[in-house]
Amino acid sequence: MAFAHNLIFRTLNAITLQYGQVTAPTDIADFLVYCQCFHEMVHSHHHHEETSFFPAIEAYSGAKGIMDTNLAQHQAFEEGLKKFGEYVYGCKVAEWDRATFKGLLDGFTKDLVTHLREEIPTLLALDKYGGEKLKKAWTDMEKEISAGALNGTLDLVSLLLQQPFVGGRGCANGDSIVLFRLGSAASTILILRIGRRFRSSFRICVIIGL
Length: 210
Known about the structure:
About 70% of the residues lie in helices and about 5% in strands. The chain is mainly alpha-helical. The chain has one domain (about 1-150). Strands 1-2 form a two-stranded antiparallel ribbon.
């Protein structure tokens, strides 16, 4: 989970760093695609938590409502994330407005960051109910995500979490390149699309796997 949250943080950092620097039409178009990927990653991650992971924790712990605080945190940024998604999917290059984008980004990131920081200690505290049971809940959620990807559902969480790790290396500027082996056709199509589009001058963190 900490790794998953770190990927969200790194992507959010890239968006925050770059939104004020994109000016060329091709860069704006590529940046909007990157933001679409971010939106889908966050939305999908929390959807699977709410429908699979959290109910499993409540069931094995026997503590009804044990994840209610986390659910409330999801709800706190849900509407802002939705508006952000509507913009990055609906915005035409000629309509791109930096101030509008910043307002939408600021509309949910504070609550999102709070959630990402606080959820890890919450999960660590579940150790008293059995670490293996928590691991099983996580594994079951991973299987559900993978099944969706293999059935043709383009689920970015499956790209970010489920693919076998191949290797990685550091870059001179401090960034990292991490490689994963992609199994599904949907994953391959997405990566080819990103690889073809992201030829802009701004630094980009292409995430392939969660």
